[in-house]
Amino acid sequence: MAPKAIRLVKEGNKHILIAVFIFFLIGANFLLAYQIPRENFQLILPVYILSFSGMLGLFWKWKGLKNWIGVFIFGLFLRLLLFNVTPPWSEDYARFLWDGEVVLSGENPYEFTPNQWMLNEELDDSTRFFEKSLPLLNSPDYFSVYPPLNQLLFATASFFSNGDIENGIIALRLILLGGEIGVFLLFLRVFRHLAIPARRVIFYWLNPFVIQEIIGNLHFEGLVLFFLLAFIWALTRHNKYLAGTFWGLAVSTKLLPLILLPSLFLFRRTRAHAFFWMGAILAISISFLPLIWEDAWGNFIQTLQLYQGKFEFNASIYYLGREIGYWIEGYNTIYYLTKILSGITFFLILYLSIKHKPQRLIPLIDLWVSVYMLYFLFQPVVHPWYVLPLLGISLFTNRIAPLVWSFSLIFSYQAYGKSPVEESVVWLFLEYALLLIALAWDYFPIFKEKLSESMYFKKFVGSLIVLFFISFWGCEPKEQKDARKIIEEAIEAHGGQESWDDLAEISFRKWTQLLLEDGSIEKETDQLISFSFQPEFSGKVTWIQDSVEHVLSFSNNKTHYSIAGNSIENTDFLASKKKDFDAAYYAFAQPWKLLEEEGSIFISEGIRQTPMGEAAVVRVDYGEGSDIWWYYFDPVSKKMMGNEVQLSDHRSLVENIDFNQVSPFTFYRTRKSYRINEAGEKLYLRADYLYDNFEFKFLN
């Protein structure tokens, strides 16, 4: 075959491959945005792999590309393809628009939580928009955590939405799309100035991770990257004031760029330049000015601390530290662990900045990549979109870890396949195993050299596969194991499982007073209750009401009810009374009864603040359609402090005030039940309970 013909065949094959890669990107991004819910990880993963492969394929085939207009148009097309989608994998957009509407109404978004806003009768602006958007919020009991510059952008989107959520989504998307176009142009401009291969922009501009998280799910980390790139561009123009302003705006959009502060103090082109710091301080001061009024600053900080001391998701070193905390203390030490890790992170960032002390722009950016990566590795919460600025700035360096992570972060969406969200040890292992390999490649030259040897590579991959299967077969949901341990410790504190199993009979008195919202008494009962456990479970509840004796009993798997000695045989009535009998036993038999509930899912939420103070918290899911319960245990004594339940029409809190010490058991004595709101605030006392006169017999 003639050389010309061979060349034409090769060119034809190249164009076919490019067409295939373009098809992968278009088709996969469309499916991810419009067709596949985030709960369907089995479909998300293969489609995402196709899309990511399309990006890598185009990077491979467009080696000598000089006309970047075509790449820009294609990336813009992929973003416009998602223009009409409601964010499929995140509900954050609803809070963005909520905060924007609050700002437009002339109120401070940091002053009220959404639930407080709806309950405040003085706020006449609880329009149809708020009523419609409240069910969409994923954190209606928390103050806003978004800095004031973000609030301005939210308000801008809300202004153009005219109270319509769909219009608000489009307005947010237009703002982010403008930022994305700016990012592309800044990449090309700064790449050219720093002699960096321009095709690296493909790793951002055509990356499905970027497209889905910014344009699809409407996350504002893309604007943070825009301001950081503008900072770099301003430095290449020797405009220190403008560079400081852009860095200040990055901080005002998301607080995270504050971790770059030590490096800026040490970088020769910023540390001693007053204009840089004037621009930064002025931008931050003006942006954060709204926090001064009406205790907004306190609410803002309170919510930030809550996120640091309560939530866990997709973490790495934090999860390892949590395991050590379990071994030492026996419970989730998140309250203390986050503070310890924050301190370690601060000192490591300071150490890295002092050690490298960058004198030129590329080393500064490379230090930023290390600082960002270090920060994320120690965090208890790492949502995928947090990594977007890290991915962008890494393109100025030869580091591959952020790009690899932009692929493996998709594994974190596996957690949404269950309700409530449940992370898998296997997928966490895979995600961070890939990241650690990439980090070793980036920061340990000997690893890179060894991995290039085929024999070493085979051994390494083999070891990785073995570790994967070990983790797969040995994994057990940590939160469930921890919850069971908390309950077992509570059982021991209340008398032990062995003593409970030896019970033959038990009887006691239960006095109940139900109260109305105005404090008046609705009903009062004084019951004698007995349960027998051998040879089979049975029980009886007796009380006097309106001078008439009522008896509710259960034996031989049948429910009986009599009034003044007359039996009631109505099937529906007896079924409802069986529920009353079960509730009486359930309330008394805690914590032993908890582990007897078949089909229940126990999840430890660690030690956190509750309406009764600091407690070890266990959430129990009794199955689809059932109410959600939270049980609170004293971290020191291990006794049950009380419980909280979300019913279909209200939320209740039962607080154990004191206990009966009836050797060998510790039973409740005084309990109080409150109606509460979703923020845990007590609305009114609903019931008083008193348990006493305990008598029991053992089998032996």
TrEMBL record:
Coiled coil: none annotated. Keywords: Membrane, Transmembrane, Transmembrane helix. It comes from the Bacteria. The chain crosses the membrane at residues 16-37, 43-60, 67-86, 168-188, 209-234, 246-267, 274-293, 334-354, 361-378, 425-444, 456-475. This is DUF2029 domain-containing protein. It comes from Algoriphagus limi.
